[in-house]
Amino acid sequence: MLPHNHRRYSFCDKLSTCRGGYDTETDESLRQRYYEKINTPATSGNAAHYEQWAKSVTGVGSAKVFPTWNGAGTVKVVICNRNKRAADAKLIKDAAEYIETQRPVGATVTVESVQEKAIDVTASVVLANGIELGQVKSEFEKVLTEYFKEIALTHKYVSYAKIGSLLYGVSGVTDYSNLQVNKGTVNITLTDVELPVVGMVVLS
Question: What is stated as this protein's family in its record (predicted)?
Fold first, then answer.
């Protein structure tokens, strides 16, 4: 049986901060977790099991598991919040406490937050008539944020070409030049525990 789309009610405004600074779980996120659970074999405390346990905690957006990271019987679980940003101390504590109730006997579990890697972008843009630079910058930051959320803890780099494509796709941008990402023109490598976040964006 597939999960149903039940109407949900929230006592916080859409633009306000909810649940300690991260978004409540959407129907789409819940549906994705459901399919992950039935499509990813999770047995006897394997890596998939730890990932499912972590992501079932309210506020956790993604998780990555490192078995035997510090020797036999050790497991590290790295998490981010639902906004795909670093987890705060309370979220780490909540995840650790829940996993402790589920883990196999004898396992030593460490739960840590992801590390944020700021991605700075500079470029010169050519705008259509009547388009304000501030308007373009705001829209570009929004699409950058969505791109970074999509690749959080799943990709090993931020694509320089993708950022250029996103900039060119912003309404009102007819061309761009001198694009630099973190002062370079190459992909930005991410470690296993890093996720990208929007840093300084300068358009001229």
Answer: Belongs to the Mu gp47/PBSX XkdT family.
